[in-house]
Design brief:
- The complex is a heterodimer of chains A (113) and B (117).
- With 113 residues, chain A is mainly beta.
- Helices cover 0% and strands 50% of the residues of chain A.
- In chain A, the strands form 3 sheets. In chain A, strands 2, 5, 6, 10, 11 and 12 form a 6-stranded mixed β-sheet that branches.
- In chain A, β7 and β8 form a beta hairpin.
- Classes of the chains: A mainly beta (113), B mainly beta (117).
- At the A-B interface, β5, β6, β10 and β11 of A face β4, β5, β9 and β10 of B.
Chain lengths: 113, 117
Amino acid sequence: AQKITQTQPGMFVQEKEAVTLDCTYDTSDPSYGLFWYKQPSSGEMIFLIYQGSYDQQNATEGRYSLNFQKARKSANLVISASQLGDSAMYFCAMRDTGNQFYFGTGTSLTVIP
Amino acid sequence: EPEVTQTPSHQVTQMGQEVILRCVPISNHLYFYWYRQILGQKVEFLVSFYNNEISEKSEIFDDQFSVERPDGSNFTLKIRSTKLEDSAMYFCASSEIGTGTGQETQYFGPGTRLLVL
């Protein structure tokens, strides 16, 4: 069974607009962590943002925010004021209590000038 | 800013040969991981390592794979007898602690692109 589901294989956004990348997860663990990573065409994996399952507030890091809806098991990434350099693959990931990481299939984001 | 480094950046090998992929995790990190990403596919967890032993491994991590921390800084992944399907990008990652509040964030190296012919 899929632990992490990203339903948007590709997304387009106009420069300076905001975009939401969807992620839902599946776990029965009470304690888990949720992460978003960016993978540019060069291939490296860049950590963007973290949300712990017990965190009361949504995580924010600069232009990135995580819309955490625990009851719905969703952890959507919101990128505000998109820039051309945001064009990349974005992966949602989850760390479960057993300390295994599970990645989604990714969303390819293209920022249009 | 400290970062995870990996060598080599690219490796080409013949099927059946052994390869060793090397990683230098961030110096104060205690947990180390290997992942692979077959071209165009998602990142897959292979193994996690803590206190000089494997703490978790996936079903991908079979007997042809092994990991080692031969000294205080390096963390290696050995593939004993490579197969065509081992061709992938291999990422090393490290985290400060295994669970917690953000300190479990894994920082990835730039990857080693392995091609098995």
